[in-house]
Design goal:
11 helices; 240 residues
Amino acid sequence: MTRLLIHVEGETEETFVNEVLGPHLYLRGYTRVSARLMGNARQRDRRGGIRPWSSVKEDIVAHLREDPQCLASCMVDYYALPQTDERAWPGRKAAGVLSFPQKAPTIQDALLTEICVAMGKSFDSRRFLPYIMMHEFEALLFSDCDRFAQGIGRPELAPRFLQIRNEFATPEEIDDSPATAPSKRVLALVPGYEKPLMGTLAVLEIGLEAIRAQCPHFRSWLGRLETGPRRFPDGRQSLQ
């Protein structure tokens, strides 16, 4: 079971999976690592936010059933994740009142539960490894402020990025209010910041190891992905 498909929210995450995460995981036993944009993400009006969980769940379940020898994951921002009405993601509303360390795990556990129910009793839950980014992709870029600034062609901003980073215990804790979310802080310093272009350039410059070192929640997800192939040494669909 050495194929991994990660359902992602946007083009920046897609590039991250294909060009940064994938090469790393190939050295850990995977034969294929790829990203799939959730729905028509390239055409979607970004102001509309992420797709409803019910739709995303259908995509994940369909893939797990189509390829019984694969692992699957998702990579989405906590920030602005739908939490009410028919667009809601499981666990998001409950996570809003919890302490920081509990937020992402609460949602991830809820997503895993729903996938397991949809897949049926014979499904091996280790095949789905959800990941909720805290609080959004731009937080990861604060893992190395010098390289962040260099990657977007604004080296003079490194001290400003570092000042923001040092206000928090980890980059993942940079908060998620409409005014002070990581992307909003970047926009305040870089008017016209374009995530698909600049975010991609920055993450390619920063590299995986810096993000792993600075972001504990990301590090936990990466560790689970790294051990994935070793959990299924003989390629069986289920170990039950």
